[in-house]
């Protein structure tokens, strides 16, 4: 029966008519079918909904399709949580895909260890289908179940990779802790959810296998023409700080978010956004008091980002016009 299934796969969809079929094919090819698909069409103006419906209509997969006006993927994912009945939840974007054994591998591990979260590896995929090699990563120190806070620090120290679709969540754990994606947040909303989950999780387990694939779209958010959406990474990180205070967690966590993750993600978004046409807009954002404050607080001595990134942050903070010109010159 549907309410006894292992995994709910929540797929927010917005104008991905060229990719949704490949995403769904990867689910249809699963070695076991102990899952449901929940597609939330976020006001697509192309043929995404039609393509998905046509692909699924003659398949034996359990699925539902929900339409909403364009409210963003955070709202779409929250809608998926409300409608999910699986014991665990995977959030999968409609232009990404998974390995054929994802459900089989994660079910075996999750049921064995009764985890709050289960992590696995992923790979990035270029637009031409080429797999991008990952830097070497080992779960050697994560053979046993860990507390989520240990995983947070491992990620901070670049010991492990994390991404939206490289972990599954126990649905009861999400509901018990009232975890939701931050509405109106379009940048780092995934990290916001992951961080809050890790800070509450008592049992996190790991699979070393690569089970999901992150498609690198040229029209992704970091190449978006809307700087207002890009810079909501600040909202995402500030919301994590509020969560830390509300739950009376270690204040050192808040300091890490403010001095390491926030400046890092401000720069990540600006590096992907800036070009000759919009550089004045970037300069104006760099002059905003809040942005300057976070960039001033970036740390030289950190395992999160390198010394080169630190120099760029300081350059952007104190000399925004020169930063823009120099970065674009080097970018070519």
TrEMBL record:
Domain of life: Bacteria
One GO MF term: hexosyltransferase activity
Glycosyltransferase 2-like domain mapped to chain residues: 8-143
Gene3D superfamilies assigned to the protein according to its UniProt record, in alphabetical order: Spore Coat Polysaccharide Biosynthesis Protein SpsA, Chain A
Coiled coil region boundaries: none
InterPro entries, alphabetized: Glyco_trans_2-like (IPR001173), Nucleotide-diphossugar_trans (IPR029044)
Entries under SUPFAM superfamilies matching the protein: Nucleotide-diphospho-sugar transferases (SSF53448)
Name of protein: Beta-1,3-N-acetylglucosaminyltransferase
Organism expressing this protein natively: Clostridium polyendosporum
Taxonomic lineage of the native organism: Bacteria, Bacillati, Bacillota, Clostridia, Eubacteriales
């Amino acid at each position: 029966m549907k309410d006894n299934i292992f995994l709910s796969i929540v797929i927010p969809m917005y104008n991905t008519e060229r990719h949704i079929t490949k995403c769904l094919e990867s689910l249809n090819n699963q070695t076991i079918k102990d899952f449901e698909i929940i597609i939330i069409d976020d006001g697509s103006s192309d043929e995404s909904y039609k393509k998905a419906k046509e692909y699924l209509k003659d398949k034996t997969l359990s699925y539902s399709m929900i339409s909403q006006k364009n409210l963003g993927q955070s709202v779409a994912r929250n809608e998926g949580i409300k409608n999910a009945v699986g014991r665990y939840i995977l959030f999968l974007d409609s232009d990404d895909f998974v390995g054929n054994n994802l459900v089989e591998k994660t079910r075996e591990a999750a049921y064995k260890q009764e985890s709050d979260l289960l992590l696995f590896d992923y790979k990035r995929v270029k637009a031409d289908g080429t797999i991008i090699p990952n830097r070497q990563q080992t779960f050697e120190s994560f053979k046993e179940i860990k507390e989520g806070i240990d995983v947070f620090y491992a990620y901070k120290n670049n010991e492990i990779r994390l991404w939206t679709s490289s972990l599954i969540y126990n649905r009861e754990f999400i509901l018990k802790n009232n975890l939701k994606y931050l509405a109106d947040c379009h940048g780092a909303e995934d990290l916001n959810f992951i961080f809050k989950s890790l800070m509450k999780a008592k049992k996190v387990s790991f699979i070393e296998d690569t089970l999901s694939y992150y498609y690198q779209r040229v029209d992704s958010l970091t190449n978006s023409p809307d700087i207002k959406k890009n810079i909501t990474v600040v909202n995402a990180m500030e919301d994590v700080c509020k969560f830390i205070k509300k739950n009376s967690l270690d204040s050192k966590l808040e300091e890490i978010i403010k001095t390491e993750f926030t400046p890092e993600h401000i720069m990540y978004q600006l590096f992907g956004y800036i070009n000759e046409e919009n550089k004045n807009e970037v300069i104006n954002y760099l002059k905003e008091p809040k942005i300057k404050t976070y960039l001033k607080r970036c740390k030289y001595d950190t395992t999160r980002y390198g010394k080169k990134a630190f120099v760029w942050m300081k350059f952007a903070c104190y000399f925004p016009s020169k930063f823009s010109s120099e970065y674009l010159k080097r970018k070519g």
